[in-house]
Amino acid sequence: MAMNVISDIAAPQVDLELRGIAKNFGDFVALEHVDLSIERGEFVAIMGPSGCGKTTLLRIVAGLESMSSGQLLLRGQDISALPVHKRSTRLVWQNFALFPHLNVRQNIAFGLTLGRHDKAAVKAKVDEIAELVQLGQFLDRRVSQLSGGQKQRVGIARALVTEPEILLLDEPLSALDAHLRIRMQSEMKRLQQRLGLSFLYVTHNQSEAFSMADRVVVMNKGRIEQYGPPEEIYTRPRTHFVAEFVGSNNIFDGKVVDMQDGLIRVQCADAIISAAAGERPPGKGSTVSLVVQADKVRSSPIGMPGENMLGAVLSGREFTGSQVIYYLETASGGEVKMVAQEPFSQTGRAAINMAMQLYWSPADTVVLRPNIVPGVENMPGRHSYVALGT
Q: Where exactly are the transmembrane stretches of this chain (predicted)?
C-alpha cells in the first residue's frame, strides 16, 4: 500500500491538456491537430514566426476563439464549450488592457467586482496581490502615472486576483523597452515559482522563452515542430525548421558515403563532414542535413579524432558586446557562421576576404533526415527533416 501512495505522489499532475486542437478560418488552416500537455506549476512558452498559430492557440484556451475540432481539458474537466467567464483561466494582454479612468486598486479589483464579493475581502485580496507584484505603494495612483513595467504588473495582478488555475500571457513584455524587458523576465519567473501556478506564455522572443520556460513549444504553420526543455530545443533541434528558427545554426545538406568507428561521413557541397552515428544511423546513400551551432565552430583545431575541417573566406563580422559573429562564405557560395567569445580589440585580426579553416567536433553535429508529414505524402513541399533517434 505504501508503495502505491509513493507512486501516486510522484506522478505528475496535468493542469492543461490539448487533444487534437484544430482551427480553420474558411480554407485557411490556422491549427492542425495540436496535442499539448502542461503539468501543474509548469512554465511553458510557445514561440514561432508570425502566423504560425501561437496566438490563435492561446485564444482558444482562453475561450476567446472557438476550435474547429479537438478537446480542451483543464485539470481533467472538459472546458471545450465553456464560455470565457466560466473558465478558470486568465489572459494577460501585451498592451496591458487597463482601464485609464480607474486607479491601480480599482483595476486589480475589477475581476472581483463582477461577482458577489464582500468589500473587506476584496480589499484584503487586492492588498495581498499588490504586495506580491510590488505594487503596494501605488494602489491609489492613476494608471497614467505608472511606468511600463508597473502597468504590466497591474495587468498580471488583475489576472491573479481571481485565482485562476492557469495564467495565459500573450507577449506581455513586447511593449517594454529592452532593459526593462530583461528585468521583468526574472521578476515574472520568480513570481511564477512562488505561486506554483502554471503559465502558458506566447512570445516571438527566443531569449524570453529560453530564460523563463521549463519547456518550450516551437510552432510552424499551425503545427508543433518540437516540444521540450530549452536546452534540448537549442542544442538538439529535431526538425529542419527548428534548426533554422532557433539560435544561430549552420546547416549542411549532403549524402551519407560511409560509416565507421561510430561516425557517419556525409558528402556535402564543400567537404566530407563527420557526425556521431547515434542509435539509428542513416544508411549509405541517405540524404541528410547536418546542424552545427555557430558557437561550436572554431578557427583552430584541437587534434581530436575525426575532427571536421572546412575552408571558407571571411565576408563580414559583427561585434555584439560579449562576442563576435563571423560570417564566412564557402567555395560553393554557402554561408557559415562562427561565434567567438573574444574582446573587441581582437576582432580586427582576421581581414575581410581572408581564407580561413574552420573546425568542429563530430559530437557537435546533429543529423537530420527527411521525414514525410503523415497523411500528406504526395503533397509537394510537405517534407520536413527529423533528428535521428527520435
A: none
